[in-house]
Design a protein that fits this description.
The complex is a heterodimer of chains A (225) and B (402). Chain A has 225 residues and is an alpha/beta fold. Chain A is 34% helix and 27% strand. Chain A contains 7 helices and 10 strands. Chain A has helices spanning 49-56, 79-88, 105-115, 120-133, 149-161, 179-194, 206-209, and strands at residues 5-16, 23-34, 38-42, 64-69, 72-73, 90-93, 167-171, 198-202, 214-219, 222-224. In chain A, α4 (120-133) crosses α5 (149-161). Chain A is globular, with a radius of gyration of 17 Å. The two termini of chain A are 24 Å apart. With 402 residues, chain B is of the alpha+beta class. Chain B folds into 2 domains: 3-48 and 260-401, no CATH class; 73-243, no CATH class. Helices cover 52% and strands 17% of the residues of chain B. Chain B has a 6-stranded mixed β-barrel with strand order 2-3-8-5-7-6. In chain B, a hairpin with a 2-residue loop joins β2 (88-103) and β3 (106-115). The radius of gyration of chain B is 31 Å and the shape is elongated. The two termini of chain B are 31 Å apart. The chains are: A alpha/beta (225), B alpha+beta (402). The interface between A and B is medium-sized, with 37 and 27 residues.
């Protein structure tokens, strides 16, 4: 039996209008991510990796082709519905973490749950569970400024997992980390995948990409296995 | 984890920015509050002053309150006729005459006022000595109640002699001074700081004027019966004396509001508008700069599925908290500034001691709160629009490249 696709990019293209003329970031790219997938996309800067990740993560819309997320054409959805998909079905991990500096690690993890309407007691329990999962149980009350880079990224991963998403998308998740810390974060991604969450990752880090079950190289806006 | 809570945490995180913005709003808000107090302060104070006199109707022989003096002839007849009206409780006749007070070689120009009633019945407050007796009830030829500033200047005590010479024109200008006796020292709410007032009886005034009695009055003060009210009294007096001009206290206040005090209201409106614009600009600038510094965070929150509404509401709450706390601090600060400004403005010549330019009213506080609430909303509009329209993908890309 064919596994159910979480998200499918169908012949998507993305052209950015620029003052000096339109720039084509993606050309006729197709990609399907299933529930058990761990997909890594590598390529040089400016090749369109992040653009594809943004399309699959429902934060951008293609200029041609379509994105289908769990059988729904994303372009036909309004911003509220797309936001709801991002909140409950997709988890984002960014290169620069983007934790809210005024909230503690625990509160950063609670925030998406609060937005999803999870009751306070359940939020606290889930947050404690996730902090334990990423090895930061003793850092719940620390502000991001009191955490190391690796700890911040692990908090960000916990935040991305807060609403039990089907897909985790990560944009250069080890880009700001040293090699050893990056290795710890990479191991955490392995664990997330092993526990049943699909992952789409774009990275320059060949070692990190090598841990994925499917790897693609991207060049000039086109995808190659 | 409400938007208000997030806003509060943001403000705590960026303490210096929050403190500067709040202080800025407090200072501008204090000026706004002062302008609101000024817009009605003089009128409110003037109304209080009139009502404090115990008389709610004034009868004059001139339209309005022109500087040109037009006295009421046959004042005793007018007084008696008005007193007989069923709508009227009591009547006091007031006569004003410039005079010179002489004591131990010092000559001081004073405003000599005669009244058919005692001092306390025409709103004077007795400080020491005895009240001025009602006309004809004293053996003294010329009993006087002197204002405290004159008493201090001439070192007068109750029982002291005081020579008064009328400042009349014509052949009587050579009248000798009359020896009066200070029965008490008091204060009139209508007395200006730079003016010396002396209150006496009709007999006392007659004596100072060299025995001449032209039976005139500058104003007849009327207290209406409570069951009739001032409007009925005005109507009855006007019907009985169509040749005179009759005003209730409300009429007088309204006339001053339309004429004399309109300048203060206009100044207040202009300065209030300017302070509101400054508040909007200050808060909007701070929120916009703060939002621009947090675009990456905001785009990431949007990518995580945090709704536009929550982020916009958080910004609105930041604005409300800054303006709210600043607005609250503005009240005592504005109060202090108002006391200082009131003291300066009251140094203008001819301003009665009891008149204030800035009067605290609940209405001013309510209007202050309403204007600042609107300001908070307007100031947050642009940053809210900025975040609502934020392109998530390109912002994230820009933040990473940057």
């Amino acid at each position: 039996m064919t596994p159910r696709a979480i998200v499918e990019a169908r012949s998507v293209g993305r052209v950015f209008p620029m003052p000096a003329g339109p720039v084509t970031a993606l050309r006729d790219v197709s990609l399907r991510i299933d529930a058990a997938d761990y997909v890594a996309i590598t390529g040089p800067s400016g090749c369109g990796k992040s653009t594809l990740l943004h399309l699959v993560g429902c934060v951008d819309a293609p200029t041609s082709g379509s994105i289908v997320f769990e059988d729904r054409d994303v372009q036909s959805l309004g911003e509220t519905a797309r936001s709801r998909i991002r909140l409950t079905r997709i988890g984002f991990v960014f290169q620069r973490f983007f934790l809210l500096p005024m909230l503690t690690a625990g509160e950063n993890i609670e925030l998406p749950q609060a937005e999803a309407g999870v009751p306070a007691a359940a939020r606290r329990a889930r947050t404690a569970e996730l902090l334990e999962y990423v090895g930061l149980a003793n850092r719940a009350d620390h502000l991001p400024s009191q955490l190391s880079g690796g700890e911040m990224q692990r908090t960000a991963i916990a935040r991305a997992l807060a609403n039990r998403p089907a897909l985790l998308v990560a944009d250069e998740p080890t880009g700001e980390l040293d090699e050893e810390t990056g290795e710890h974060v990479a191991a955490l991604f392995d664990r997330v995948h092993a526990d049943g969450t699909a992952i789409l990752m774009v990275t320059h880090n060949a070692a990190l990409a090598a841990r994925a079950t499917r790897r693609y190289a991207m060049k000039n806006g086109m995808l190659a296995s | 984890m409400t938007s208000a809570w997030l806003a509060w945490r943001t403000m705590r995180r960026y303490r210096a920015r929050t403190a500067l913005a709040t202080i800025g709003v407090a200072i501008i808000g204090a000026l706004l509050f002062d302008m609101l107090l000024l817009s009605r302060g003089l009128v409110t104070s003037f109304a209080d002053l009139l009502n404090h006199s115990g008389y709610d109707v004034r009868v004059l022989n001139s339209q309005g309150f022109s500087l040109a003096r037009a006295t009421i002839p046959r004042a005793s007849e007018v007084d008696a006729a008005i007193a007989r009206l069923p709508e009227v409780a009591s009547v006091a006749r007031i006569r004003l005459e410039p005079a010179t007070a002489m004591h131990h070689g010092a000559d001081i120009n004073v405003a000599l006022i005669s009244s058919t009633h005692s001092g306390t019945q025409v709103a004077w407050t007795l400080i020491s000595g005895a009240d001025l007796p009602a006309d004809g009830a004293s053996a003294d030829r010329c009993p006087v109640l002197v204002a405290s500033n004159l008493a201090a200047r001439l070192e007068l005590q109750p029982g002291a002699p005081l020579s008064l010479r009328a400042g009349v024109s014509g052949e009587r200008s050579v009248l000798p001074a009359v020896a009066c006796r200070v029965v008490g020292i008091g204060a009139s709410p209508f007395s200006a700081g730079d003016e010396y007032q002396v209150l006496t009886t009709l007999s006392g005034m007659r004596a100072v004027r060299g025995g001449a009695d032209d039976d005139t009055a500058d104003v007849v003060l009327v207290a209406s019966r409570p069951e009739s009210g001032p409007a009925a009294a005005v109507h009855a007096i006007a019907a009985r004396h169509p040749d005179l001009h009759v005003y209730s206290n409300e009429d007088v206040v309204e006339q001053f509001n339309q004429n004399g005090f309109a300048y203060f209201r206009q100044i207040s409106v202009v300065l209030s508008s300017i302070t509101i614009v400054f508040t909007v600009l200050l808060v909007a600038t701070i929120l916009t700069v703060s939002t621009n510094q947090r675009l990456g965070e905001i785009a990431a929150l949007r990518a995580l599925g945090i709704g536009r509404r929550r982020i916009a509401t958080m910004l609105l709450w930041e604005s409300v908290l800054i303006v709210g706390v600043g607005g609250l601090l503005a009240l005592p600060l504005g109060g202090l500034v108002a006391v200082g400004l009131d003291g300066i403005l009251k140094q203008m010549p001819g301003i009665p001691e009891a008149l204030h330019f800035f009067v605290f009213e609940g209405r001013a506080v309510a209007l202050h709160a309403l204007l600042l609430s609107t300001t908070a909303l307007v100031a947050a509009l642009y940053p809210m629009w900025l975040t609502a329209r934020l392109p998530i993908a390109s912002t994230l890309r820009r933040e990473v490249v940057g």
